[in-house]
Amino acid sequence: MKRIRLIISYDGTNYVGWQVQKNGLAIEQVINEHLSKLLNEDITIIGASRTDSGVHALGNVAVFDTETKIPPEKICFALNQGLPDDIRIIRSEEVSLDFHPRYGAHSKTYEYAILNSRVSLPLTRLYADYVYYYLDTDKMRRAAKYLLGEHDFTAFSSAGGQQKSMVRNIYSIDITEETDILPKAQAPLHKDDFSPKMVRIRITGNGFLYNMVRIIAGTLEKVGMGIYPPEHVKEILESKDRRKSAPKAPARGLTLREIDYGNLE
To answer: What pTM was estimated for this model as a whole?
Structure first.
């Protein structure tokens, strides 16, 4: 018996999320079915992060145990032959039998993308939120600083999560903007317009509560639009009241980028 770790990338648009559910097709279900067929074994993978419906991933992690004689590093290539185009195994490798993807992770990194433009763009509609009003990223950065460190993030979590503790540690929040998303010839025509940009909120922490990153993104959008002053984020955090924070931003803008296991790897 050996344990295989998979690094998985997927477009979550057409799925009900990572975890197997009764109301639709899940990414976990698709991989289980194709692995079982490939290896001629009853395979059930264990995933590191249960992403929601519509959320994407560049580097989710899962493991499974198998008796196969296929070299571990070649399983990804064989599995990709049968998987749909919106799911890909980036890497497969053998790990120790006591390695668990959900426990022992040093950090997780998510990125939330926001198209800030007067006109939406078809090529970003599945992978970014769309905000019509100008976003002041300097204000968003000032607001984000209040979230750094270890805090009770009850105000930034939706009901229904299964976590026992609401305390999480945010190591970093980086907010960047890309301004070259359109050719210069398509620059705004009116004096009150602004140049379109893609705003990216990249957040790394030791873990995240249910919908936490999407609620943080929605709240920072309100700051960027001038609805909340940056200092209001501190008040929201200290209130421990979900009603004080903004609605969660749409799932399509969120991507799980990486899970870091530190020296456990």
So the answer is: 0.94
